[in-house]
Amino acid sequence: LGSIQHIAEIGWNIDAPSGSRVEIRSRTGNLLDNQYVFYDKNGKQVTERKYDKLIPSFRGAIDTVRAAGADWSNWSRAYATSGQVFLSPGPRRYVQLDIRFLSENPFAAATLDDIVLEFDNPLAQETRAEVFPVEVSPGEKSQFTYYLRSDFVSSSRGFDQIQLTSTAGATFRALRLAGEPTAPTIEETENGFKILLAEPVRRSTLLEIDFESTLYLNQTRFEAFLFNSALSTTARQQVDPGDAEAAIASDRTFVSLPTDGRLFADLSLSNRILTPNGDGISDQLRIDLDLFKVLDPRPVIIGVYTLTGHRVALISDAATTAGRQTYQWDGRDSQGRTVAPGIYILRVSAEGDALTRSENRLISVAY
């Protein structure tokens, strides 16, 4: 790109007949590694050590191959539509595109006419962010601070909006700009909030954002994006993780859960005595629990058993992911008949990647 730039959008013109398609992915970075390939006078590739031992007249060419350096991002997911927001981190100096022409029909082939990257000077030349604390208990509302440091050069365009997002959601509590409390306008979003500043930030400074969140997944990530209200909404700049505040030992924007093996907690029942007689009082048993560390859907099995271990009802065996879960039982067995009065065992089992955890509760059915 010639210098460090912020890529806002990627677009293209593709002709893809039925049965064919084009997949485009991207990655970005600031560093390039030079790799050298050595040849003898006959054009045969040799090692550098062997090349150095050859007399000058037996030496051939040396090719220089430029490869992605250590700071390059992973490949993005495939872009879905032309004009989409650029997915790889920025601002960066270099960008690489991976373009694949795919076809399920030997007589159909897609063609790529052109590809366009929309880029401009960054909002901030460099950003670094870290979150603290870095480990919290699952299923409990926790207090966090997001430290964001931004550095600028003369060409930087500045920002006046910060959006914080997470799969766990987040609730804004306070903001400090260069150590001074400030009262911005807050807009709630689907997965977090957006901070609207009264004045744009154009000088290198530290922002401290206090917020609350309840985590159910290990390594929950909190991502921040910068915006400038005078520019297009596509001119958003993702904040990079790093050392934003020397006094904070984090350097990361994700939070871990303790490795204690728990898969669920806070199992609670609406009532211990179920009276399914249709009077609207204790006709239903409500079961609540917090499911942890389950990223891909896994079964949560809830059954009702006699004291001898015979299962009379399966309340649920549906697969689900981490979060607060709620289930209902109306006192009927697997055939839809109301169970006999008595004492039963309610068993809850959750399956993780390498283990299964279960808990039992005694419940009573009476008329």
Notes on the structure:
This protein is an all-beta fold and 367 residues long. It has three domains: 6-120, no CATH class; 126-255, Immunoglobulin-like; 264-365, Immunoglobulin-like, CATH 2.60.40. Helices cover 2% and strands 52% of the residues. The protein has one helix and 29 strands. The protein has one helix spanning 48-53; strands spanning 6-15, 20-29, 32-40, 45-46, 59-68, 84-85, 94-103, 111-120, 126-132, 141-151, 159-165, 171-177, 180-182, 185-189, 192-201, 205-214, 220-221, 223-227, 237-238, 254-255, 264-269, 273-274, 285-291, 298-305, 311-316, 319-320, 323-329, 342-351, 356-365. The strands form eight sheets. Strands 22, 24, 25, 26, 28 and 29 form a six-stranded mixed β-sheet that branches. Strands 9-10-16-12-13 form a five-stranded antiparallel β-sheet, with no helix packed on it. Strands 14-15-11-18-19 form a five-stranded antiparallel β-sheet, with no helix packed on it. The chain is extended. The protein starts with 5 loop residues before the first strand and ends with a strand.
